[in-house]
Write a structure and sequence with these properties.
The complex is a heterodimer of chains A (about 300) and B (about 260). With about 300 residues, chain A is mainly alpha-helical. Helix content of chain A is about 75%, strand content about 0%. The longest helix of chain A has about 40 residues, at about 215-250. With about 260 residues, chain B is α/β, with parallel strands linked by helices. Chain B has eight helices and nine strands. Chain B has helices spanning about 1-10, 60-65, 100-110, 115-130, 145-165, 185-200, 210-215, 245-260, and strands at about 20-25, 35-45, 50-55, 75-80, 85-90, 170-175, 205-210, 220-225, 230-235. The longest helix of chain B is centred in the middle third of the chain and has 23 residues, at about 145-165. Classes of the chains: A mainly alpha (about 300), B alpha/beta (about 260). Chain B: Keywords: ATP-binding, Nucleotide-binding, Transport. Chain B: InterPro entries: AAA+_ATPase, ABC_transporter-like_ATP-bd, ABC_transporter-like_CS, ABC_transporter_ATP-bind, P-loop_NTPase.
């Protein structure tokens, strides 16, 4: 195809005219005003509610729900439909809990379980993060273990307990093995999902800005994958806490410390229903408490910075 | 202002900013191969503003990717006479976790500038695109037009910082940067871009499918055919307001239509 350049005028020479002539100045000023006007109209508006209103709207409904639940429980108990040993009164459960507080055993029970969960979770993070990166970025690794990794997520980690007991005996190794088996797949999958969901334009932006290798990972890849990674961590924590309780209930022995699961098991062995229910509540409270105190604030910060809403 | 214009003129002489000789790009191989570009010859002078015009499928974006070194040509010779080109995409493509200022600073940081320097430069660029005082906002707190201006500032930051680091002027590649905006915002941003171009003297290679936009912005309009993309023809655009160029507009539009209808059969 032949080129047919049509030279009409070379050089621009308008620079001075455009910048100094009165007409051009008017055009520029007009543009400035138009820019300012458009900005004012287009800027998304944000409304902030006072903190006490937010506190009431998020804190009140669960509180009301709790009171209703306790009232219903009290009513069912008072109507004596079920035997006392099956459904104790709320106040008896409270006494069972208060007793462990009074003799101080609640702290050692909580510490045993929570420290195990934290150590297990930390080790899972250290293993799952590079694993997730490998699966996400190396095609062969993904083809080889990607499906296995997501499959493992649906395997209840309690299924590992009998095997772990046979392998490691009734020791802490059994407990940690089960916790890791529960949380590693979640965290790794979360990271993989986080990386997969990065809009393809962002790595290209990094490339044209000159980010290669490690600096691309630090400035683009990891921050972009952070929301998915955090979601995976949150789920990983829930799984590690769940697996820990399952392991503590099933595997009990003198070599193992006395944690929440063992406390629950003991209550059940002695037909001590108030203790069993108190233990269930404690397990629930720790699980929710860590989620609310650790994960929720971090997640909120990360999502808010990106203009994403917190869905749960 | 005089000093700026002197610097601008200095930028607009010397070795070509970009030279393409017989450049072609084919994706895939065998019977499934698609030739996106064939035998492209193009030269861009330093400080020149060139628009690549073409319908969809003409390989405009592929051409920019080749120049930006995001992809490699299958055949031909491609020489970039400027520092590593910077790129502005059709979408703002800001990093959503960084503020507007940090988005601009990242370009400077990756070009090796220090913290203090970055901060000052980023504020200058924000002022240049009329976003003073908006630097601490995150992309989601900005409108589409504002985001695109931050993106422009980031691209300019990359151009100048890389240029300084390599000791030669930069080049800006723009891939339909205003296509997704409404007409008024687009009009305003075109004015802004011309202002910024005149103030900085950067070489600009601008891809568009809009004849009016091409005539309004460019010193030279290059029409590409579609599938495969080749240079059909080029026009120099003289100075003066749009009204002077109605004939040119009609001529280019007619030629573009011809290129498009040739694919109908």
């Amino acid at each position: 195809m032949p080129h047919e350049p049509t030279p009409l005028h070379t050089g621009r020479g308008t620079d001075e005219n455009l910048l100094t002539s009165p007409a051009a100045t008017a055009v520029l000023e007009d543009a400035a005003a138009a820019v300012a006007g458009l900005d004012a109209l287009d800027t998304p508006t944000t409304t902030t509610r006072p903190w006490w209103k937010r506190a009431v709207s998020t804190g009140l409904p669960p509180l009301v729900a709790l009171v209703v639940f306790l009232l219903a429980w009290q009513l069912v108990w008072a109507s004596a439909i079920t035997a006392e040993y099956k459904l104790p009164a709320p106040i008896d459960v409270w006494h069972a809990f208060a007793k462990t507080v009074a003799d101080g055993s609640v702290w050692s029970i909580l510490w045993t379980s929570v420290s195990r969960a934290f150590i297990g979770f930390a080790v899972a993070l250290v293993i799952a993060t590079p694993l997730g990166l490998l699966v996400a970025k190396v095609r062969v690794v993904r083809a080889a273990i990607g499906p296995l990794l997501s499959g493992l997520q649906s395997l209840p980690s309690v299924a590992w307990v009998p095997a772990a007991v046979l392998w490691f005996g009734l020791t802490d190794a059994t407990i940690y093995f089960v916790v890791l088996a529960g949380s590693i797949p979640s965290i790794a999958n979360g990271l993989v999902a986080g990386i997969d969901q990065i809009p393809p334009i962002l790595p290209r932006v990094g490339q044209v800005l000159g980010a290669r290798g490690l600096s691309a990972a630090r400035h683009i890849l990891l921050p972009a994958a952070l929301p998915g990674y955090l979601a995976g961590c949150k789920q990983g924590w829930a799984f590690s806490w769940r697996s820990l309780m399952a392991a503590e209930i099933i595997a009990a022995g003198p070599l193992l410390g006395f944690g929440l699961g063992a406390f629950l098991k003991e209550g059940s062995d002695f037909n001590d229903m108030p203790s069993v229910i108190a233990a269930i509540f404690l397990i629930l409270i720790v699980g929710i408490g860590i989620e609310l105190l650790v994960f929720r604030p971090v997640e909120r910060r990360v999502l808010r910075a990106r203009g994403l809403a917190l869905t749960t | 202002m005089t000093s700026t214009i002197e610097r601008t003129d200095a930028n607009r002489t010397g070795a070509p900013a970009l030279t393409l000789r017989g450049v072609g790009k084919t994706f895939g191989a065998g019977s499934g191969a698609v030739t996106a570009l064939r035998n492209i010859d193009l030269q861009v002078q330093p400080g020149e503003f060139v628009c690549l015009l073409g319908a969809s499928g003409c390989g405009k974006s592929t051409l920019l990717n080749l120049v930006a070194d995001l992809d490699a040509p299958t055949v031909g010779e491609l020489q970039v006479g400027t520092a590593r080109p910077s790129f502005m995409f059709q979408e703002a493509a800001l990093l959503p976790w960084l503020t507007a200022r940090r988005n601009i600073e990242l370009a400077l940081q990756l070009a090796g500038q220090g913290r203090r320097e970055r901060r000052i430069r980023a504020d200058e660029l924000l002022a240049l695109v009329r976003l003073e005082g908006q630097g601490d906002k995150r992309p989601h707190e900005l409108s589409g037009g504002m985001r695109q201006r931050v993106s422009l500032a980031r691209a300019l930051a990359a151009t100048t910082a890389v240029g300084e680091a390599e000791g030669r002027p930069g080049m800006l590649l723009m891939d339909e940067p205003f296509a997704a905006l409404d007409a008024i915002t687009r009009d305003v941003l075109q004015t802004e871009l011309l202002r910024v171009w005149q103030a900085t003297g950067t070489t600009i290679l601008f891809v568009t499918h809009d004849v009016r936009e091409a005539i309004r912005l460019a010193q030279r309009v290059v029409l590409l055919s579609s599938r495969p993309g080749t240079v059909v023809r080029e026009w120099r655009v003289g100075d003066g307001p749009m009204e002077l160029h109605t004939d040119l507009h009609t001529e280019i539009t007619g030629r573009l239509r011809q290129v498009i209808t040739s694919h109908a059969a």
